[in-house]
Structure formats: structure tokens, C-alpha cells
């Protein structure tokens, strides 16, 4: 228990340090020119994230830890059934966690009810590290069913779970950031990891581009599932959702209540645009 608490504290500190680092670097080496004022976006993204973090802290994480504890005590789950060294269990568990998140992310796009909530993440008119923690509390609340099923069926040990959560958060802030990497470095990194250029395409206002590049950490899941898209210049990628492209749609209150209202035509610009 003491080791677990130490890992949690270390994870929070590491995530905050890297978030600040990406926030600084993306302003020194921007990939795309901003379209909306930064302070307003930080107010909206920060406000949404406070509620989201509360739901995650009081619902998702306790449920996940309870499921992991039950899986460990009952020896239930794939990794509990397969007899293998811990190092091999760690590699297999990490990969399976990331693969299952690929499917969950894709479901949030393909199931209309889930997209109502995930859409709030996508309607941010710019993309930077702050978008990495901008999620609707409804999406996070609904994810509890996925997270419990994920850790239970996989039989993930707590150490692997916490390590994956750390890398997951760091990579989320990295690929949402507006950090411009040299193209040669970007191509080399993108062989294995999701980069800002790759994930920027996923946030495009063109639906066939948004419905691609679902991977969270490892980019090869998209290649294996034929959902990988590249070769689009960052200057051609317009961030956001067309039907919610007016500034009012991105106010804190409207973003908060958007999933519960009649939905706009996501992929069509407003008539007065």
C-alpha cells in the first residue's frame, strides 16, 4: 500500500512537470497558429477539467482499484491465468491496455450516444496541451464501465496499471500539444508513438480525418486496423467540429450542457457562417 501511494504521488508530480514543459515548448516552437485567445480557452478547458478530475478521482479510480484488487484476490483475468515472468506480464499488460484504449476511443466516435460527450473534447477550436485534459465529465463517468471491464478481464496488476496511467497521461499531453518537432524526428518517433502532427489530423474538421488516428500511445494500432492517416500538412488542418465552430459553442456553459441538448449537424458549418 505504501509503495502504491508513493507511485501515485510520483505520478502526479511527473504529470504536472511535463504538462508545464509541453505548455512552454509549444509556445516556443508552435506547430499551428492559434485561432482563439489563449486565456479564454484555458478558462473553458480548465473549468471542464476540474469537474472531470473530480469524477475521475471519486468514481473511476476507486472503481478501477476495486476491480484490480478483486482480480488479484480471485486470480481472475487474462494475465492472472497465464503463467509468465513479471517482466513479460508487464509488457503484455501495457500493450493490451493500450490496444483496449484504441477500441474505447474508436467507440466514442462510432457510437452516437458516446460521441455526444466526446464531441466536447473535439470542439476545442485550437489544439494544445490544455486540450489533453479537456473532457466532459459525462464521458469520464461513462468510461467507468469500460475501465472496470478492462482491468478485470485483463487481470492487470496494480503496478502495471499505475505505470500505464503515467505514460498514458504524458503521451496524451504530448500528442495534444502544439509542439512542432523537426519533420525527420517526427517521422522517426511516429513509427512507434503518436505525435502532435498525427493527432492533429484526428482533430480535423473533416470527418474522414477525424475518424482516423485513434491510437493513444503506440501509433501502430492505427496501422494494424487501417485507420492511420498521414501526409496532410499542418497548415491544411483546421481544428474543431464544423457544426460547433462559432465562439459561443465553446463557452464553458455551452460546452458543459452540449451533450444534453439537441445536436447540431456536426460536419456542416452553421448557416450564418
Summed up, what is this model?
The chain is mainly alpha-helical and 273 residues long. It has helices at residues 2-28, 38-74, 78-81, 86-110, 112-122, 137-154, 158-176, 183-190, 196-202, 207-210, 220-224, 252-257.
Kindly, what is the distance between the CA atoms of the first and last residues, rounded to a whole number of angstroms? 56 Å
Radius of gyration: 19 Å
- The shape, in one word, is globular
Strand residue percentage: under 5%
Reading the helices and strands in chain order gives HHHHHHHHHHHH
What does the average pLDDT come to?
A: 93
**Individual helix count:** 12
Number of separate structural domains: 1
Unreliable stretches (pLDDT < 50, length at least 5) are: none
Largest sheet: none
Structural class by secondary-structure content: mainly alpha
Q: How much helix, percentage-wise, in residues?
A: 55-70%
Question: What is the total tally of β strands?
Answer: 0
Structure description:
With 273 residues, the chain is mainly α. The chain has one domain. It is 63% helix and 0% strand. It has twelve helices and no strands. The protein has helices spanning 2-28, 38-74, 78-81, 86-110, 112-122, 137-154, 158-176, 183-190, 196-202, 207-210, 220-224, 252-257. Helix 1 packs parallel to helix 7, helix 4 (86-110) packs across helix 5 (112-122) and helix 4 packs antiparallel against helix 6. The longest helix has 37 residues, at 38-74. It is globular, with a radius of gyration of 19 Å.
What attributes does this structure have?
273 residues, mainly alpha
Amino acid at each position: 500500500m505504501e509503495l502504491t501511494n508513493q507511485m501515485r504521488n510520483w505520478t502526479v508530480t511527473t504529470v504536472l512537470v511535463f504538462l508545464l514543459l509541453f505548455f512552454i515548448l509549444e509556445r516556443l516552437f508552435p506547430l499551428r497558429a492559434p485561432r482563439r485567445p489563449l486565456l479564454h480557452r484555458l478558462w473553458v478547458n480548465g473549468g471542464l477539467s476540474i469537474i472531470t478530475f473530480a469524477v475521475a478521482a471519486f468514481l473511476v479510480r476507486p472503481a478501477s482499484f476495486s476491480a484490480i484488487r478483486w482480480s488479484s484476490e480471485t486470480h481472475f483475468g487474462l494475465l492472472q491465468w497465464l503463467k509468465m515472468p513479471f517482466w513479460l506480464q508487464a509488457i503484455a499488460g501495457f500493450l493490451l491496455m493500450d490496444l483496449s484504449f484504441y477500441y474505447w476511443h474508436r467507440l466514442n466516435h462510432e457510437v452516437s450516444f458516446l460521441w455526444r460527450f466526446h464531441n466536447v473534447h473535439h470542439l476545442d477550436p485550437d489544439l494544445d496541451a490544455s486540450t489533453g485534459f479537456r473532457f466532459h465529465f459525462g464521458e469520464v463517468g461513462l468510461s467507468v464501465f469500460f475501465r472496470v471491464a478492462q482491468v478485470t478481464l485483463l487481470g492487470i496488476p496494480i503496478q502495471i496499471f499505475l505505470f500505464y496511467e503515467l505514460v498514458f497521461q504524458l503521451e496524451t499531453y504530448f500528442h495534444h500539444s502544439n509542439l512542432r518537432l523537426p519533420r525527420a524526428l517526427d517521422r522517426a518517433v511516429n513509427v512507434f508513438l503518436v505525435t502532435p502532427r498525427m493527432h492533429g489530423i484526428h482533430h480535423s474538421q473533416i470527418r474522414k480525418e477525424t475518424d482516423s488516428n485513434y491510437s493513444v500511445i503506440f501509433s501502430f494500432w492505427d496501422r494494424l486496423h487501417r485507420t492511420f492517416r498521414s501526409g496532410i500538412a499542418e497548415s491544411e488542418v483546421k481544428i474543431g467540429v464544423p457544426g460547433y465552430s462559432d465562439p459561443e459553442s465553446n463557452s464553458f456553459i455551452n460546452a458543459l450542457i452540449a451533450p444534453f441538448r439537441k445536436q447540431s449537424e456536426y460536419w456542416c458549418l452553421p448557416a450564418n457562417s
